[in-house]
Amino acid sequence: MNETLKKKKIIESLMDKNTLVTKQILDDVEKNIDKYYEEITPASAPSQKHNVEVVFSYQDFNKKRVVQDFVGHMTVRFKQMEALLRSRQELQQLTSISRVTPGSSVSIIGLIMDKYITKNEHISLVMEDRSGKSIKVIITKNSANYTLAKDLSLDQVIGIVGRAGDNVIFASAVLLPDIPMQQQVKQSPDETYAVVLSDTEMGAKEFMHDEFQRFLAWIQGKWGSEEQRRIASKVGYVFLVGDVVAGIGIYPGQESEVAYSSVKQMYDEAALALASIPSHIPIIICAGNHDSVRLSEPQPCLDKEHAAALYNLPNVIMVSNPSWLNIHASEEFSGFSILLYHGMSYPYYADTVNSIRQSGRQASDKTELVMEYLLKCRHLAPAHTSAMYIPDPQRDELVIERIPDYFLSGHIHKSRVKTYRGVNMVVGSCWQPSTQFQQKMGHVPDPCVVPVLGLHDRKVTLFDFKHDQQ
Amino acid sequence: MTSSKKITEYFDRLHKQVAAANEQANKARASGIDPNKEVEIRLAANMAERVEGLISVAAPQILDAGVKERIMELEKEFDVLDWRVALKIAEEVAQEKFCKFKDKKEAIEIGIRTGFAYVTVGVVSSPLDGIVGIDIKKRLDGKEYFCVNFAGPIRNAGGTAAAVCVIITDYVRKVMGYERYDAQPDEIKRAHTEVSDYHERISPRQYFPTEGELHFLVQNLPVEIGADPSETREVSNYKDLPRVPTNFIRSGFCLMMTDCIPLKAPKLWKQLSKWGKDFGLDSWNFLEEYLKLQKKAKAKDEEQLGISPDYTYLKDLVAGRPVLGLPLSSGAFRVRYGRCRTTGLSAQALHPASMYVLNEFIASGTQLKLERPGKAATIGSCSTIEGPIVKLRDGSVMYLQSLEMAQSLSPEVQEILYLGDILCNYGDYVNRAHPLVPAGYCEEWWALEQEKAGAPPLVENVTQALEVSHKYGTPLHPKYCYHWNALTLDQFKQLVEWLPTASFVEEQAILSLPHPAKRALELIGIPHRVIKDKVILEEEHTKSLLSTLDVKEKHAEIMDAIEKSKTPDVFTLVKLISGLNLRDKSGTFVGSRMGRPEKAKMRKMTGSPHVLFPVGEQGGRMRSFQSALTAGNIVADFPYYYCEKCQDRNFLPVCLECGDITVKQYHCQECGYITEPCDHTPSQSTKQTFPLNDLFPKILKSLSLVHYPDLIKGVRGTMNDTHTFEHIAKGVLRAKHDIFVNKDGTTRYDATQLPLTHFTPQEIGTSVEILATLGYTEDIEGKPLTSQEQVVEIFPQDIILPDCAESPDVGSKEVLTRVANFVDDELLHLYKQKRFYNLKSEDGLVGELVIFLAPHTSAGILGRIIGFSNTQSIMAHPYMHSATRRDCDGDENCVILLMDAFLNFSKGYLSSRRGATMDTPLVLTTLLIPSEVDDMVFDMDISWKYPLEFYEATMELKMPWEVEIPQIKSVLFKEEQYEGHGFTHHTDNINHTVRCSAYKLLPTMKDKLQGQMDLADKIRAVNATQVATLVIDKHFMRDAKGNLRQFSTQEFRCVSCNKKFRRPPLKGACTSCGGKLLFTVAQGSVVKYVEPMTSLATKYEVNEYLQETIRLLHRRIEGVFGKDAEKQTSLGAWFG
Q1: Which long-range contacts does B14-22 make (Cβ < 8 Å, 24+ apart)?
Q2: Do the domain assignments include residue B652?
Q3: Chain A: nearest CA to B515, how far in angstroms?
Q4: Which of A263, B143, B449, B901 is the most exposed place for a label (fewest CB within 10 A)?
């Protein structure tokens, strides 16, 4: 593009932003044409430089939301989930709920409307499907899938095999969509690492500045043992899974806990810190509940006005929450599929899913159980009330349609790591000391811990920056 | 009972009147038209009867089994209202000494309920609804302990009584041989988590114990406290404990652990330390150590307590209800001590001019939330205290001493410099255990000092006032004192420099403007006029000001004193300079805000039915008989009736064919239709088709009606288990008289409560002649009652009802007249009896009896109407309010016309859900015995004046009980308990005041908010930015965020059948009727707050953090609904 065209675009964009274009500005533009141009071009540009492909990032659409959108949303979810379930061997002979005849053996796919435990401790579900009809499903106390059924969430789509009675099905099997066993675990041909950050909550008075500086020093190769520094030099990707800043007005009484009264200043501070990450490493950022975008999921990318400073970093890639990426692909390697989700729905499942609730663990130590559960459900937030969402009759983007290699999250402020059927589930920690509020809730955060993912060996190592080891 | 001849005659008269009404009602009900052939309200002359009557609802076998006699016996042994009576009676009932119960557990439960009913003086329904029951649970060692389970209605018992209930439970546990509760570590921790969750998330409590306190408490409680899960939120930690059946927050538990046991621990220990040993209640000795723990925790708070600003009353501020003063802010209401004849028992008074000048937001009966002595108060008016000092648009400062003056000058008011006095009585400070705060200098205090010095009790003018002060050394009369402490030293200096420039015309000082010291003149509250560029001080104020500050002679000396002054205390400086004996006029200012508006209104249930008769789906959207007549039949649940004469199944308790009483039947699958229930649990009702078209004309005929009202409304279905319903004829007649029915068959009139101990015939609109027939023959001085202006002491059970022309709702005079006419019609046509009321005019109601009943209680007190005021309050003796276990802090009570209640009330209509007996007259107290009413009224003072030591004590922040002033408690059990009470402040006329709050008359939220902000701008003691911040933070922001959060996780409902859906079904329509689905949280309810928040924040320049919060919220809303979504609903900017 020639200089004149670039200049024209820059001035147009300045005027769009209602900036008064003075002579001074024109002069400045003249001198720094490239810098200005970089600012106005979309931030997705760097993705070509690095080995990051954004497979899915939600494009926001605004419209008046009507009841039919909610209906459509549930219907489209049902269709998406049905497609996943149809691959199950046991569900080959499907019947619509409206055609269930008493006495026959049936298999159905249905959406859970209601769930309760009967006097005799059997589990009773009310299931519906696209025929608009609903039917009661009984899973008796002694049946094989009883424990599984106990964990079922409302509004989940599942398969049922059983024998039909009068407007009831006695289930012999309960089928979750689940993810298949993986034949072999993918490994990158070269030694490369990815780093998972989350909940940096910059702008909070209690932000653990020194510790974060330590992390930055490490990634620049200036801190840590020889081995740690060697690893630092091989870091290829940084993920920041939501809650970049502390935000404003997030909870009552937050005013006294933040250092700024403007969220833009918080993002400025975040950008200043993240600028220390070597520019050849792409930083992939999604929003969390403290960020300045809407809370309903999918959350769009951080907005360009408040987070302008972040957008200005050449190596930042903004994505939605949730989002899908493919990283590290090359001619000889197909790359890793990454699912990013901040994790707003997690507390609901930690609290309501029977086996997780009864796991005897503290609230902050259940995250990987929830992630595994949701992978089996193939949905990030199946229950209607588990997280705020935008009803989209076109697609339910919270359905886990692909099978990720890495499933990365945050939100709970404590790093957890687990592998389920070849999927590495990794939770980032946080950069704030624990608050009284968290303690009361039974949360014990573990700040300044950074999971480092070895893409070549699929091992996850936790680096703790709480103390200076040198 | 101890009472004078006059009072005894009064009670006899009431007694005869009730008996006559009861007899006629019983005769009418014998016709069998109602569920029960007798009047269902139990009359109780005393507490023991009330307790028995109340408990009989849960256990009918207790009636006349000897409980009431035993209670009276025990009262002789111990004392009336002594907790030991409750313990003993609980023990004996539990041991089945009076009657047998189903099992041991029921015996224990009824025992505890009986004891509890005694502590709550048999008035509230808490003993029935507040206790779910007792669980006998296993300790870790396998032995058994008690868990007492509370439910929401426990709150009506009051903190102390509820706490005593736990002691009763423990006592019964001990005598029945059960073990102590062994609290486990997780249960102990759960208590703190749950209580703090409740405090933070649900509703903040008055007292919030520390973690250490709670742990100690739970560890040591001898019985477990359990409760129903009442909230939809779970505790944040310590879930799934094996012995705690729910993870949801239990409000009953939290109440017990905050406002009950911890808060009342001192009171509990005071008693238990005396006689606990005798009852083997050593299990409560831990209270002694607990109190030490509590003291330690309190000590921290108390250091600041003294009189530091208290913001509690601003915590739950809502849009539209103005803040009238920030805590301890100069210019807010000035504390004035005393009791007007319309205050006491939590009611306080303002000058009518103050009420008017507050844009009429505060009317007689409006509730104020106050900084001190705490909680809230209903406002009455008092014309003998100080009114406001205002600055007019032309710069003049005026003292508004009358309502008329306020009315004429109100449009000119630019700033309210001083709001005037708030009159609070000594008794309320005693009751709240609040230290006395310094009184501003006032007439009555001055008079006491004059009296002590032997000086003249009156001064005519300033010259005389100064002379007297010089001669006797007494302080200068308050009229000539100013609010010096409103000034800073600099402002004072400016004033001292300005005053010598004054010129004098006819002894009036004239000062030239502009001058910065003009503000100082305004701040000290000295009245002055501004004409063009001149300030003119009237003669009297010129004199008092200049003799206080002799600026001509002593200018240098004064300036020197200012320079040398080490404190910013201008008052002390002025006192020093003047050489006069001065007292501080300001005293203490209390912050306040408007609470609930006053109310006087006929009660309507949802759907405003005329009759408790099911109209089913056929009643249509309006639930009307007209729709059902079009449909022909009604399909609903009906009980079985059988007419033996016609040998036919029937629908009504009286056969419409032959007029005979029908027989109630049961239906059993094996035995068929039977008249007595068999052992197979037969059904009492079933879905039946009621032939309305056939029967309705017959009903009309029986009422001798040809035409019937245009709209007669029934209920969709009956709420009670047996589907008992009212006779349709009652609905026809109620519709004819335009009155509505309540869930128990009665018609209610609700109104705000105000106390009243004395009245004048004029203000209640009743002639001296009629009053004489009611027993009022003398005024307070013992002179014969001949004129309308004489002040008369009210009889304890007499009430004055509201009849306010300004109110948008119909007054009680008209409503009760309609009820009386309805009752007469009903008696004549339905019951075939003679009329009872025979009202010739609306005034005919005077002398008639009513039941006075508080919400949440189950026992009413008999009252007699003696007149009507033009306000919206029910006024009655403080005893009456206390008899319903209420104080006058802004709540409302209801009245039911006695015959209406006797004829139409039935327990049969009540649902079996918990809490259904709340707010129903199960028991009626016919005789008011002061010692048996709620003890709060015992603190009320009844003196004609407060002693000088009292005012001196206020300066030293002494506790109120360090000064003795005659209170109700000092006259109990004496003849004087009923009469001869005093008041310190007269008011010319109770109607001479603001009678309807502007809040009620302003049509929209926007108008109310603008009114609130206008006052915030006008009142000197209020900071508008702070109010805007509070309104945004406490109301708009909370609602907007809450609704936004709810929007995507909301329920849906069917437009036609109202069925609720947790989420939309895939069908996309109602699964039961196919109706269209609707939002329960619409987009409009999210976006509607954006505009008011933004414009309020901009106009009043709230801090940057809040502005950013609003902007971010706005973006988040846009993120969901799109840009400018709010334009669709909002109508232009709220603040320009």
Answers
A1: B14/B797, B14/B849, B14/B862, B14/B864, B14/B926, B14/B927, B15/B926, B15/B927, B17/B849, B17/B864, B18/B43, B18/B849, B18/B862, B18/B898, B18/B926, B21/B836, B21/B849, B21/B898, B21/B899, B21/B902, B22/B902
A2: yes
A3: 40
A4: B143
Give the pairing of strands B685-690 and A283-286.
unpaired
Q: Give the range of the structural domain holding residue B955, as residue numbers without chain letter.
A: 306-440+587-597+940-1022
pLDDT tens sequence across A159-189:
999 999 999 999 999 999 999 988 788 999 9
Task: Give the C-alpha separation, B873 to A225, whole Å.
Answer: 80
pLDDT tens digits, residue range B799-846? 999 999 999 999 999 999 999 999 999 999 999 999 999 998 878 999
CA distance to B566, B613, B651, B741, B816, per residue, from B745 (Å): 72, 11, 19, 6, 15
Do B280 and B401 reside in the same domain of the chain? no
Q: Are residues B577 and B482 in the same domain?
A: yes
Closest CA to A242 of A53, A450, A382, A428: A428
Residues B266 and B315 in one domain: no
Domain boundary among B274, B299, B324: B299
Q: Do A67 and B1052 touch (CB under 8 A)?
A: yes
pTM score: 0.87
Residues B1029 and B1018 both lie in one domain? no
Q: Is residue B748 part of a domain?
A: no
**Alpha carbon distance A195, B604 (integer Å):** 65
Total length of chain A: 470
**What's the rounded Cα separation, in Å, for the pair B841 and B814?**
10
Reported as half-sphere exposure (CB side, CA atoms, 13 A), residue A395 has a value of: 11
| ipTM topping 0.90 | no
User: Is there a single domain that holds both residue B276 and residue B366?
Assistant: no
Q: Which tokens in the block code for residue B94?
A: 């539990």
Do A115 and A108 contact (CB within 8 A), yes or no? no
Domain annotation covers residue B209: yes
Two structure tokens written together for B637:
């649940």
| Side chain identity at residue A113, one-letter code | M
Q: Which residues of A276-287 are buried (b: 16+ CB within 10 A; e: fewer)?
A: ebeeebbbbbbb
Q: How many domains does chain B divide into? A: 6
Based on the fold, state whether residues B416 and B498 are members of the same structural domain.
no
Sign of CA dihedral B211, B214, B219, B224: negative
Choosing among B1104, B1108, B1127, B1128, which should be mutated to test the A contact, i.e. which has the most A CBs within 10 A? B1108
Average pLDDT over residues B999-1007: 93
- Tell me the chain A residues in contact with residue B1116 when contact means C-beta distances shorter than 8 Å: 293-295
Q: Which residue has the tokens 């003799």?
A: B547
What's the residue count for chain B? 1136
A chain contacts of residue B239, beta-carbon cutoff 8 Å: 351, 357
Q: Look up residue A166 and give its amino acid.
A: D
From CA B256, how far away is CA B261, in angstroms rounded?
6
Neighbouring C-beta atoms of residue B970, cutoff 10 Å: 15
Residues forming beta bridges with residue A258, ordered by sequence position: A204
Residue B612: which of B735, B749, B702, B724 has the closest Cα?
B724
Query: Are B539 and B549 in a shared domain?
Result: yes
Residue the block writes with tokens 């499933």: A407
- pLDDT, one tens digit per residue, over B601-616 is 999 998 899 999 999 8
**pLDDT at residue number A44:** 40
Within 13 Å and on the Cβ side, how many CA atoms surround A149?
28
The shortest CB-CB distance from B1116 to any of A64, A68, A295 is to: A295
- The answer to whether the Cα torsion of B562, B565, B570, B574 is positive or negative is negative
Q: Which of A421, A465, A294, A445 is nearest to A367 (CA)?
A: A445
In a domain, B242, yes or no: yes
Question: For residue A234, what are its two tokens?
Answer: 């091989």
Q: In Å, how far is A303's CA from the nearest CA of chain B? A: 10
